[in-house]
Every structure is written in C-alpha cells, then in structure tokens.
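Case study.
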Amino acid sequence: MSAVDQTIPYDEAIAQFDPVLGLEVHVELSTATKMFSGAPTEFGAEPNTQVDPVSLGLPGALPVLNAKALESAIRIGLALNCSIASYCRFARKNYFYPDMPKNFQTSQYDEPIAHDGFLDVEVPASEDGTKPAFTYRVDIERAHMEEDTGKSLHVGGSTGRIHGAEYSLVDYNRAGIPLIEIVTRPLTGAGDRVPDVARAYVATLRDLLRALDVSDVKMEQGSLRCDVNLSLRPTPQDPLGTRSETKNVNSLRSVERAVRYEVGRHAAVLLSGAKVVQETRHWHEDTGLTTSGREKSDAEDYRYFPEPDLVPIEPDPAWVESLRATLPEPPAERRRRLTTEWGFSEPEMRDVLNAGALDLVEATVAAGASPATARKWWMGELARRANVEGTDLSALPVTPAQVAELQGLVDAGTLTDRLAREALEGVLAGEGSPTEVVASRNLAMVSDESALIAAVDAAVAANPDVADKIRAGKVQAAGALIGAVMKDMRGKADAARVRELVLERVGS
Amino acid sequence: MSSSVNELVHWNASRLSEALVAKVVSSEEVTQAHLDRIAAVDGPAETGVHAFLHVAAESALARAREIDADRAKGAVLGALAGVPIGVKDVLTTRGMPTTCGSRMLQGWVPPYDATVVRELHAAGLVVLGKTNMDEFAMGSTTEHSAYGPTRNPWDPTRIPGGSGGGSAAALAAFEAPLTIGSDTGGSIRQPAAVTGTVGVKPTYGGVSRYGLVALASSLDQAGPCARTVLDTALLHAVIAGHDPYDSTSIPADVPDVVGAARQGASGDLTGVRVGVVTELSGEGYEAGVTARFTEAVALMREAGAEVVELSLPNLVHALAAYYLILPSEASSNLAKFDGMRYGLRVTPEGEHVTAEQVMRATRAAGFGDEAKRRIILGTYALSAGYYDAYYGSAQKVRTLVQRDFARAFGQVDVLVSPTAPTTAYRLGEKLDDPLAMYAGDVATIPANLAGIPGMSLPAGLSDDGLPVGLQVLAPQQADDRLYRVGAAVEARLTAQWGGPLLARVPEWKGATA
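After joint prediction, the assembly is written out as follows.
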C-alpha cells in the first residue's frame, strides 16, 4: 500500500483550479443470458455455475450476440439522445488476466453502437441553500457494448488484494455478462459544484436506466459501476491537465466524495510543483481516500482489432425507430411534471427521490390517495420500517394499493392515525389487506355515540374530584377523563369527540 | 497389396455405404478392419504413418454396433451411416482428447462436441479417432506436431503436407475412407495434393466453425477429405449448413454437391468456362507439377470446357497479406492458452509465484517454435503504431484479392491452378527455413483470403513418382462447381490410369527409425 497522499482542503483547492470531470459508467444489463452465449446470469449463484463453453472461453467456442442486449444498448443510446450507428463492429481488447477467459475482452473500440448524445442533469441546491439548483448538460461521447470479466478472489493476506495473497480463486459467473459502458466527454464549467454534478449525473443516469428497465442498477451489487476521471487546470482557458482514473466508485455518496478528494489531491500535487501522474486509482469507501493503482501510460497497448468471430451490426432504421417509441418519459421531465402535479416543494421531492420512493408514491396516488398522504406514509412510517429492516422501500411487503386503502380508512373516519399504523403493522406481518386487518384485529373506531356517552359518564362518576375541577373552570383537567375514556375504548375513539362529550356531560 | 490386408479398407465410402445398406457387411466389420489397419501401419510414432494422435477403438466399435442394430431394426439412416471417419485433432470431441497437436492441450478432454462432430454423429458416421496435425494448424508438413510428424504413405521419408497431414495420410494409407480437415491457408488442399487424395475447403461460412479450435477466425474453414470426389461430396453434404452457434455461418441452403459430383462423373464439361490463373503457375513450380497441370487443363478442354487464361494481379501480394492477417488473429486466438483453466500448467520453482509467472512459464513450455514465431509476429503486427502499416494494409490487399476473384468469376465458372508448387519434400528439408515453407502455400491461400471454396484432387504423379494436385476454385457458395469439374477430371484421369491413383501407393513398410 502506498503512503497517504498529500491533499489540501477542497475549498482551498477549488478556489485555485478549474476542475474537468469525466465519468465512465458500466451498466450490467439484466438480460436472462450472457452477451455472447446462452449461459444464465443469476446474481449470487454458486461460483462457476453460470457458465458454458463460450463464457469459459473453451477452445473452439464462438460468440453469438444476444439480441436483447443489442436492443437494450440501442434503447440506452436513444434515451441518452445519441446517434445510433448504422454499422458497427465488436473489437478484441487484448490483455492477459486470469479472470478473462480468452485473455481478450470482446468490446467495441472505434465503432460504438451509440455516440454523441447528452443527458440534462438537475443539480440540486446545496444543503445550506447558499448554492442554487441548476441544470447541467452532460455531453455523452459514446455508449458501447462489451462483456464483463470474471471475478478474482484473493485469499490470504490482510488486504483482500492481490498483493500478499496466498492464492487466488476465479469465479467466471460474471464473465460474459453484457455491459454497456457510457462515457462522457470532458465535463467543464462545473466549478466548485463539480462533486454535485458528478453525483447528480450518476443519480439521473441510474433513474433513467431503471425507467428503461434494462438493468438492476444496484451500485452495491456492481450492476452499475462508476469510474471517475478528474483533472485540474489553472484556468478554464488552459489546456486539459493530466487526469487520474478512480475505479469502482460504487455509491452516489462515494462519487461525490471521490471527486472532492481527487480535487484536493491533484491541487496538492500541482501546488508542490510536481506533475500529476496519469494512473488508475482505487477508491476506499472506509477511509474516503484513493490510492495509486497501476500507472496508465500511453505505452499500454491493447492491440485492438475487429472481432472476426462476430459479424458487423447493421440495425434496421425502422427497428431503431420502433425502439424509440418504447422509451419512457425522461426522469428529469417526469420529476418536474410530478413536482408540479403533486404540489411538492423541491426539498420534499428530493427526499422522495433519494428514498427511491417516486414510483411508489406515484402508484399510491394512482390508487386514490392524495399526494401529501402518499408521501407521508412512504417517507414516514414505511421509511422508518425499511430503515429498521435494512431493506429498500420497494421490498417491504406492502403494495401502493394497500397504502392507499389504509389512507382511505383514515379519511373515512374508520381509523385514527395511530390505529392506521397498527393496521399497517398487520399488513406488513402478512395478515392481509388493511380492511382485513382492521376486522381481524378489531381496530375500527367506535362510532356508536351511546357507547361513548356511557363510557364518559362512567369516567365522570369514577372521578368526581376531577369533574369538580372542570366545573370550577379548570378545563385542562379534562385530559385525565379523556384519557380514561380512551383507555376504556382501547383507543378506538375520536379523541376530539370524547373531549366534547366530557365537557358536555360534566356540564361545565 | 499384401494378402493380409482386409479388402474392406480399400473400399471407398460410397461403396461401403452401398454394402452397408445392402447388409453385405456390417459397420462393426468395416470399423474393425480399419482399426486393424491402423494397428498395423500407424504406429509406432517413430516409424509408422502416425496419422492418428488418438484411436478410440472401443467407442468406435460400440457406435458401429449401434448403427448395425438400428439398421437391423429398419431405421432410416444417413447415406454414410456406419462408415468410419477420422477427425482432425483441431475439432472438439466430447469425452475424447483434443490436443491440436500441441503440448498445451495434452490430456484435455473437451466437455462438448464441435458442430461438425455433432453432425457426424447424427449422420451415423463412426469416429475412429483424432488425426495428427501441425500444432494449432500452423505448418505445411505436420512436423510442427508436438507428438511427432506424420509420414507420407507414398514415401515414409517425405512430408504428408500440413497442417492436416494426418487426415490426408490416413486416407492414403487406407486407415480411414473419410476424414475431416481444416483449411486456413491450404491445410486441407496441400496435404491432399501431396498424398494423392481429395480435399475441399468449403466456402467460408459454409461449414460451422463452432468447436473448431481457432487459428485465424476469418480464414479457418473445416472441410471434407476423401479418396474420391464423390466421397468428398457425400461428406461435405453431412457437415455443411447453417449453424446458429457460429455467427459467421451462412444462413442459406447448401448447394447440391453430391448431385454435382454425380453429374461430373460422366466426364463431360461442355459449356463450363475454366480460367487458368496466370499468377499461379510458371516460375517456382516444379516441372513435374507444371506438366501434370498442363495435361489436366488439356483434358478439361477435351471434356468440352472452354479454357481461358486469366490474370489476377493482386494474388502476388496475397502471401504477404496472409502472413500478417493469420498471425495477428492467431496471436489473439492463442492467448487463452495460459494454464489458468485447462490443459498444461507449468508452475515455476520458488516462493510467491504469481499467476503472471505461471502464464509465462506455461506458454514458454507449451507452445512450439512455429506457434511462438507466429504469436510474436501477430502481436507485433497489431501493436499501436504498426497496426495500420501491417494489419491495416493486409486487409486492404485482402479486399483487392477479393475483387480480383469477383472480376475473374464474371468471366469464368471456375479457376484452376496447381495446388502446390512442389510434390512432397523430405521431412526436415524446410524445417529451418520458414519462409520457404510459407511459399509453398502461395496457390492455396488466395481462396482463404477471399472466402471462396477450393478443391484439390489428384492430377497424376510427377517424374519422381509422387502425387501432384490440381486445384479448382469457385465463387462463394458455388461449391457444387468444384464437384462437377473435379468429378469430370477424376473420371477421365482414372480411365487414363486404368484405376485410381492410390492403387499405386506402395505397401507400407515403415520408416527406418
């Protein structure tokens, strides 16, 4: 492990340099089979079970392009406002590594399937409100298809890295999984907001890919992986500086942190009078640091040449147009539309988005709940539950329709908020729909006035001293009687109505 | 022929087929006869023909008995059901070793069959074993086999051609009536020429490459080898056709090669336009080769063909282009042999040995000199800064060669040339002169560059008593023309000779060790 690099504080660094950002995002497509063969692609399966002669690179095996992967690639390209190549080929990227079954990666080189697009990204205002929200257009250089490699597991040693390991195991389950690599052009002009732009881009891209239904986009499982390229220059008029490539920055927060860290590190190098080394760097989630990987000089030569085992791809323009028709509403547009339709504030909407609750809230509203109550459930009680259980909101065993049904019972006066939470408890425990749970747990509010009056009278009779105090004008003493009635009714009464009745029956 | 030889091994596949259908013989008898012949002449490696690297006697006999049982039950079987065959060791065979003639794959048993092998099984052919070859199909003599060379049945001191010397020699030594070869620059046709047998490189994409261990993906093509044009056609029909597992496979019907061979057998070529390629004759071609070729052309004219001479000017650059494209693709295709997953693994001495060191040691020990030579050449040709000058220029030449052929086939139906400039030279003669060996491919490689089909068939014996091959070339997907013309020439020559050329192969006496 190399020594910790010198850095200077971000604010100090960004005041003296102009940052240029580049992002390379690898997306694993959620196709049932691999890029070039019929091997299955299940995540988390026993090592070396999702393989066949092609994905193991056995002698004699040949690739055949997965039509679904091509379709996904084109849809991604279209959603990124790219031109779709009318003719393109795969190429072989030659280098030796044990997790590469053929010792070349079948990828695209100078003929990507999609090129020259853009993605408009809404960068939110800073937390403290001092920096306003703005829209940044991320220019997309290309989106190309390639196959994933296997995974090496280094056993022994302390770091889990290859250095110091006693031996390594290779799992080829991931080898041949279809990947789309989306590469931005050098992104300039972000200034001190460069970490926010980076994060907002990856978040927007993730939302877009999820809406396209082409990938699981789970950063923690590696189905969306981000490499952050960064360089600094003294002023925007200067030529681009030397960049570092920080690999596998695999959460939105890490993207932001890695950019901040690299800005500080580059600045420290430049201010010391040294030169930035063009290299690959590793991101460490725990320490928030990057460390030097291999040096990446221009001497590295992948000896690309067109893959002779595959035929050129010439997508039928009519087919491409039919795929364009399947594109979902762009996430940024949808967000703007829903914010207006629902009457949410920007921070409210941001919370919903960050919690991954947009689809859930939308479906709940569609099922009849008001936007405000839908948000209240998903961002309140359900968010708390998801947090406790450590799952995603969408993984909770409750449907948007059930949440809407629950809210309907509140609106109808059948449940108080507290009772509704109890009913939700039952739904989450698998006891059935909200209505079923209300029935089985006997949660419905007592709406029988005579039963309430009887309970109030009983409470007054049992507490004559309290009744006297109320009659003497100490209205706040009514709380004790209300509490007694609510207890008697097991909470299934409207507290406001009970209060009215208490005052009425005491005769104050 | 010695009387101890079972006559069945001299029968051609079509005759065996008829006898099997008529139940005059059983597949078990035929298979046993060939296994006996292999046992008699193929070994030992130092002095025998050494056409086979692996003989699968048990599974062959079991399969033969299955076919016999099916036939007894009245099952409808393919034309070649029950006929034995040898498969070049470059095609994967499930449960049967596949070495590609390399130490690198010693002991490797593939878990899957090549599509061609699957087709053979489906058609009821009986696989006798795997035939010898130059390592990873790189060479023209089989001397680059890690397991020792194959010997030419015409003269044990001479090369059987390569890389598919095993598949050709097995036919000429009557160890098998049919074999499968693969042809990247002539590896089916040149061995056929120097052993007096027939071999066809089909149209690129005509026969599946799935399971054919790749040398140069854009040039490789598996194909049929036999002792007669009709037998070759029968085998061609079995293995050709579209395969969804090979992206470069042509999704079209296979031309009627068997019908064309039967048509040609009449010896009539009336209306067929034949082009003699100026660039593939003359200087560099042995007098005996040129003489037989000239006679064959005259014969075609007698048969009614219209013969013209045609120039394909870019063919003079074909050899140079080929020896850039082939090593480039080979350097990448052979990268997978690194000791990590299958085959040979060499772990260097010492502590803290890394995967990279294992790869290096394995490749140093596993590849022979010719493989290393081509890997280094190809790695260089693909390197940044050299790519355009070497690989890029070679691809341009390739396009020009294709255009030359397209133009020529606008004027003629087939092109003809000698298959190889020389007859079989002596083992060891060109081993230390790779360029001289490469030059022997000059007439065969243009077809691979252009993706067109080509056949070599016997044209007679040279003055030294060794076979000379006639090459016939046709446009893409017109493989049937090879068979029409080949069968006509074969019919007329066989009549002249008073029997097949292979009847003159001396009885195998073995090499002196």
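Observations recorded in class. The domain at 449-506 of chain A is CATH 1.10.10 (Arc Repressor Mutant, subunit A). Chain A has 17 helices and 14 strands. We will return to this complex in the next lecture.
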